[in-house]
Amino acid sequence: MTTQQNGTVFVEISDFVLNCFVRSPSWKIWLSVPLSLLFLLAMGANAILLITIRLEASLHEPMYYLLSFLSMLDIVLCLNVIPKVLAIFWFDLRPISFSACFLQMFIMNCFMAMESCIFMIMAYDRYVAICQPLRYPSIITDQFVIKAAIFALARNALMTLPIPILSSRLFYCGENIIENCICTNMSVSRLSCDKATINRIYQFVAGWTLLGSDLILIFLSYTLILRAVLRLKAEGAMTKALSTCGSHFILILFFSTILLVFILTHVAKKKVSPEIPILLNLLHHVIPAALNPIVYGVRTQEIKQGIQRLLNKGW
User: Fold this and answer.
1) Where along the sequence do coiled-coil regions lie (predicted)?
2) Which letter does DSSP use for residue 140 in this model?
3) I want to staple 290 with a disulfide (CB 3.0 to 4.6 A). Which of 2, 3, 41, 202 is the partner?
């Protein structure tokens, strides 16, 4: 469709093309296999964790409900990105419609922020368990989990919804090639014939407000946990207390580290290959999703025992 503005005729585009690693075609070959394996691992491990928590009555506790929520977020994030990337790698299916692109953008921003929020809620859970153990059953209840899930969904959906809306309202003409494997806000808005200043400022403010506040509260929770642990005098109490939040801390550290590396690499993009930020962004959608259930399954005795009992029953 053609559009005329100020006497100039523009051709309005109707879809986008994801230019996924076209400058490095060899990357597609060696990356497709590990990416496929990580995707299958993430889907399988999270599915097993969800089934185990659902069927094992001993795991029907608030902490494991939060872990189930985290697994569901990981599954959605993987399904939102990885199948399309693999379709590009294997079948060169690079075109993506406007609606699919902006839907992917919303899910990516919303669910990534929700995952950060769940990590923050789980940090609070560990804080109460260690610093206020006698009050834990009265504070961390099923109702608390329901309210926390509603809060995470509402806060992050409302805060991230304007990002794809602002991006979709821009005028796109001529160039429709996205230099990315994913419909990120920055990659898409760069193709617009309009100024996307408000769009970019909002994403920056919303991103740092959501992720920044979560990281601050997580850091505060673990600072208070560490202070309480150092005061424990009973033999073995410190080791047991640290063990209860060890899995959670490992996952938070990995989630934050890979996100920080991605941000720093994106800022210094003139000094690194343009493919590196794209690769890091892609891996950030699948590696944490694959590691989360494995780390919890290995380090949490109750989950290991639950999986073993289900395997013995043959489900």
Assistant:
1) none
2) S
3) 41
